[in-house]
Each structure stands twice: as C-alpha cells, then as structure tokens.
C-alpha cells in the first residue's frame, strides 16, 4: 500500500515513521510513505503557499495552486482515496481504518494555518477529522491515520488474530487484561483468569466488555445494542 502525504513539514514524520511497528512495516515494504511538499511547486521567489482570505478575517489560508500541483504530480493507483485532514471532516473510527486498509493508495493533504482554499475540495474524495477539536496542523491527525491503517495491513502485527480482539473491532471496548504477578500491592488477578477454564474466561471477558462499554461509552453501547437487535430479527 502506498501513502502520499502532502505536507509543508516533511520533517515532522521522520521519527514516527522510523519507530515501532510502523517503522518495521515500512522497512518490510508492507507499505510505503512518500512525502510531498507543496512549497516545491510554488513559482515565486518566496515560495509562498498561503494568502489572506477574500472578504477579510483572521489568519491565512493555504493557496490552491501548490496543493493541486503537488497532488497532480503523484502517480494514480487503481484504488485511491484523497483525504483532507480538517476538523470539519468525518471523525476517525476503526471502521474507517478497516476500509482504507483495502485501498492501493491513500493521499493525505495536511491542512495548516486557518485552513485551505475551498477549491481544494475538488481534489478530495473524503474529509477526515481526528475529533471535535482544533490542532495546529494536519500532520498530527495524518500520523494517527497512518498508524491506524498500517497496523491493519497483513504482516505488520505479529499475531494478526489479536487485531480481532481489540477495542472497537466487535463494537465493544476491550476487556481488562493482566499479567504476572498474580498479586501486586494487594490487587489480585481475577480468579477466573487463573482457572484454565477457557469457556468461563471467554464469558468473563465478554461480560467485562459489555460492562465497560455500557459505563464508559454509552454511545457505543447503544449502537452495539441496536446492531445486536438487528441481527436477532
């Protein structure tokens, strides 16, 4: 899978893309990441990529020409999405990462300043947000998206079966997990996990998932309940 990141700050990605699971996945060529700087496509001597908004207002907007030229310089693979990182976009969720993991190419445009010229949306197939808040740049959500998608690609995670047991994969939050020692500062591991009774452990974990989701994320609980009722009809 190929990722193309259109960013004014390519150095932002240097350490994250060379570290951990993502770094190993790139080294194994499970995925590739190419960084393209819109500044390289400017024609004035100051390499200007932003300007004041028409109609007045605070801050500067990214100009359309450098972004269009940057995106249009990229190869086009058969299954491709062009994403714009913006607070106005679709919130990131696990289902989105699962969908994007099936594509051949993901182009990510990182917004900056007060945003981008509206005409840039003519390049974009989907607007994506990290959440209902504003950050200083689109590089932070872009990294989150890269991480979330690459870890789903075959070969990235050693035990791929573990991906199916994580939070959000079943619509529920993850269950509590413990490791040695069996007792730490008076806190004991639940007896069922030490029992060796695998059906009982599975039931305990499912019960914990349901309880956690119901108390911590009522929105997810409601969606899960509706989906379960739909399957039962």
Summarize the structure.
It is found in: Cytoplasm. The protein is α/β, with parallel strands linked by helices and 233 residues long. The chain contains seven helices and nine strands, in the order βαβββαβαββαββααα.
Walk me through the structure.
The chain is α/β, with parallel strands linked by helices. The chain is built from 7 helices and 9 strands, in the order βαβββαβαββαββααα. It has helices at 20-27, 64-72, 94-100, 139-150, 191-194, 198-216, 218-232, and strands at 2-6, 32-36, 50-51, 61-62, 80-91, 105-110, 126-129, 183-184, 187-188. A hairpin with a 2-residue loop joins strand 8 and strand 9 (187-188). The mean pLDDT is 93.
Give the termini separation: 39 Å
What gyration radius follows from the Cα positions, in whole Å? Answer: 22 Å
- Described by the principal axes of the CA atoms, the overall outline is elongated
CATH fold-level label of the largest domain: Alpha/beta knot
- Give the strand order, joined by hyphens, for the main sheet: 2-1-6-5-7
Q: Please give the CATH class of the largest domain.
A: Alpha Beta
- Please tally the β strands and state the result: 9
Class per helix and strand makeup = alpha/beta
Count helical runs. 7
Q: Helix fraction?
A: 25-40%
Average predicted local confidence, pLDDT: 93
Into which percentage range does the β-strand content fall? 15-25%
At CATH's second level, what is the architecture of the largest domain?
3-Layer(aba) Sandwich
Instruction: Give me the strand/helix succession.
Output: EHEEEHEHEEHEEHHH
* Low-pLDDT runs: none
Number of domains: 2
Within CATH, the superfamily of the largest domain carries the name SPOUT methyltransferase, trefoil knot domain
């Amino acid at each position: 899978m190929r990722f193309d990141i259109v960013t004014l700050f390519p150095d932002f990605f240097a350490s994250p893309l060379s570290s951990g699971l993502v770094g190993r996945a790139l080294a194994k060529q499970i995925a590739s990441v190419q960084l393209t700087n819109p500044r390289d496509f400017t024609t004035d001597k100051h390499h200007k990529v932003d300007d004041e908004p028409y109609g007045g207002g605070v801050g500067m907007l990214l100009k359309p020409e450098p972004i269009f030229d940057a995106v249009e310089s990229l190869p086009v693979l058969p299954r491709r999405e062009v994403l714009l990182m913006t607070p106005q976009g679709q919130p990131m969720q696990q289902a989105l990462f699962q969908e994007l993991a099936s594509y051949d190419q993901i182009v990510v445009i990182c917004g900056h300043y007060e945003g981008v010229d509206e005409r840039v949306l003519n390049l974009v197939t989907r607007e994506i947000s990290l959440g209902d808040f504003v950050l200083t740049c689109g590089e932070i959500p872009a990294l989150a998206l890269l991480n979330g998608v690459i870890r789903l690609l075959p070969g990235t995670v050693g035990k791929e079966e573990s991906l199916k047991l994580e939070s959000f994969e079943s619509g529920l939050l993850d269950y509590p997990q413990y490791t040695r020692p069996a007792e730490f500062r008076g806190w004991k591991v639940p007896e069922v996990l030490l029992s060796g009774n695998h059906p009982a452990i599975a039931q305990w974990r499912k019960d914990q998932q349901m309880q956690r989701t119901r108390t911590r994320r009522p929105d997810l609980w409601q969606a899960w309940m509706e989906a379960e009722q739909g399957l039962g009809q």
